[in-house]
Amino acid sequence: MCTGKCSKCIGITLFPLAACAIVSNILLYFPNGQVLQLSEITDLVWFFHGILGAGILVILPAFMMLGAGGAGCCANRCGMLLSVVLAVLGFAGGAYCAVISSLGLIGGPLCNTGDGEYLYPFRNDTLEDSYLFNQTTWSICKEPANIILWNIVLFSILLVIGVIEAILCFVQVINGLTGFICGTCMRKRKTNISGM
Fold first, then answer.
1. Is 76 left (phi over 0), alpha (psi -120 to 50) or beta?
2. Do the strands 118-119 and 111-112 form a parallel or antiparallel pair, or are they unpaired?
3. CA torsion angle for 56, 150, 127, 129 (degrees, to 10)?
4. Does the pLDDT value for residue 175 go beyond 50?
């Protein structure tokens, strides 16, 4: 397969992943569909890991990958080298999203425990005592309703998207370096034999 075609396939795959990451991050601002005060939103949401990390920082290399893979064979080594540089940026964005999402899953949500005060009831739990493995502890959070499930689902989606994007961007780094060093495509030369 041409490195240009591979680059185009990776670029096309990154667009829906980035869109899903942006939407998932935005949904974290509205737990259970409710509009909350800024001080009542989980702090890790403000790191914009889905919007910036797995979103914008991945869309930029995706556009370059489409350009590098245009018409299947771009025959442009500089384009492939630039796609490598941007793929490293996309890898960093995907890895950033995965790390922040992991921290969000481990730390748990900010919630009202019934006394009107918003706090992080699961932040000091050990991994063995984690709320992720003990659903009976979820009743600690009274408001917003279903905040724990909301955070688990959305942070998990962002974690998976970040890992997939990081892997795809790493593959593009290898692909782009191959295209830069060896050329983007091996074309079969057509010979015109006259008189036959």
1. beta
2. antiparallel
3. 170
4. yes
